[in-house]
Amino acid sequence: MNILDRIKQPVEEDLKNYGSFLKRYMTSDSPYVGSILDYIFDNRGKGIRPLLTLLTASMHLRVPERGLGPRSYLAAMLIEMIHTASLVHDDVIDESDMRRGKPSVNARWSSRHAVIAGDYILAKGFTTGLDSAQYDIVSYIMQSMSELCEGELIQSDQSKRLEMTRETYFDIIYRKTATLIGTSCGVGALSVGATREQVAAMKKFGDYVGLAFQIRDDMLDYDTHADTGKPSCNDLKEKKITLPFLCLLETVSAERRVELLRMLSESDHTPAYIEELHEAVVCGGGLQAAEKEMHEYLNRAVALLADYPDSAYRDSLVLLTGYVADREK
User: Fold this and answer.
1) Which residues contact 192 (CB under 8 A, 6 or more apart)?
2) How far apart are CA 46 and CA 122, in angstroms?
C-alpha cells in the first residue's frame, strides 16, 4: 500500500460516497457538454483537497458513529470545482497542450470551449450549494476564489517585470495555492459544526500545508526526472522567479544577481540560458534552501495537530505532511 492509499484509508467509504455525490451533480442533459465533463473528471488527479476536507471533517465529528453527510460532500465538491476550473483555465492561459500526461481540454476541444467549461463547472457547483441552502459553506469557500485570482494576476505582473521579493513570493503562493488548501481544511471542520477556534486552526493547518505544497511544486520544476506531466524548467521558461531561484539570488553578489536576471530576461532569444540558470540554482544551493523552508511550514502544520486526540484521521493528516515533502509529481 503506497502512502497516499494509507492516508485515504480512514475515509475510504466517504471517498466512495463523495464520488457518487460528485457524479450526481456534475452532469449535463447535453451529451456534448457531458462528454467534456466526463473527460475532465476522469482525469482529475489525486484529489488532495477534497481528501483534506473529508479528513478534517471526520476528525471533528461530535458523534463519529453517524459518519459524514451531504454537507461535507458538498464542501469537498465545491473545493474541487474551484481547483478543477482553475486548472482548465490555467491551461488556456499557458497554452498548455498536456495535463497529467493527456491532452488538455483546450487542446482536445478549443480554448474557447475550455474557458466556458471551466465557468460551467464553477456555476454548476455553486448553484448546487445555494439550492441546498448551505450558505455558510458557500460563503466560506467563496472567499478563497478572489485570493486565487489575485495571486495569478500578481505573479503575471511580477514575471513581466522580473521583480520578486521574498514577501511578494509568499504572498503569491499563499493566494494562488495555500488559501484554497487552507479553505479545504477549514470548511471540513465547518461542515460538521466545529467551533470557530477549531475551524480557524484547521484553516491555518491547511495554509501551512499549502505553502509547503507550492514550494515543493517549485522545487520539482528544477527536477529533470520528476513525473509532473509538465516539461522541466517550465517556470524559468515563463520567467517566474520561484523560491529556489529567489534563494540563489539572495546569496550571490549584486553583479551576479544582475547577470542572472539578464539571462532570464533574454532566455527567449537564447534558450541555452535556461540550462545555465537551472545549473546555477542546483549548484548554488537554491533547492536545499527551499527544502528547508518547506519543512519549516510542515512542522508548523503538524504542531497544530498536537492538541487533538489520537485518531486514524489525525494520523492521516500527519502522514499527508510527509507525502507533501516527498512527492515526485
Assistant:
1) 57, 60, 61, 62, 68, 71, 72
2) 19
User: pLDDT of 106-146, one tens digit each?
Assistant: 999 999 999 999 999 999 999 999 999 999 999 999 989 88
Q: What is the CATH number of the domain that holds 180?
A: 1.10.600.10
Tell whether 327 is covered by a domain.
Answer: no
Cell of 70: 451531504
Q: Tell me the backbone φ, ψ of residue 99, rounded to 5 degrees.
A: -145, 115
Rounded Cα distance, 28 and 37, in Å: 8
Q: Total domain count for the chain? A: 1
What span, in angstroms and rounded, lies between the C-alpha atoms of 165 and 179? Answer: 20
Has residue 127 been placed in a domain? yes
In this structure, of 43-52, 77-86, 154-163, the range with the lowest mean pLDDT score is 154-163
State the residue range of the domain holding 284: 9-320
Secondary structure class of 99 (helix, strand, coil): strand
DSSP H or E run through 324 = helix 312-326
Q: Using alpha carbons only, what angle is made at residue 241 by residues 318 and 224, rounded to the nearest 5 degrees?
A: 70
Beta bridge mates, 210: none
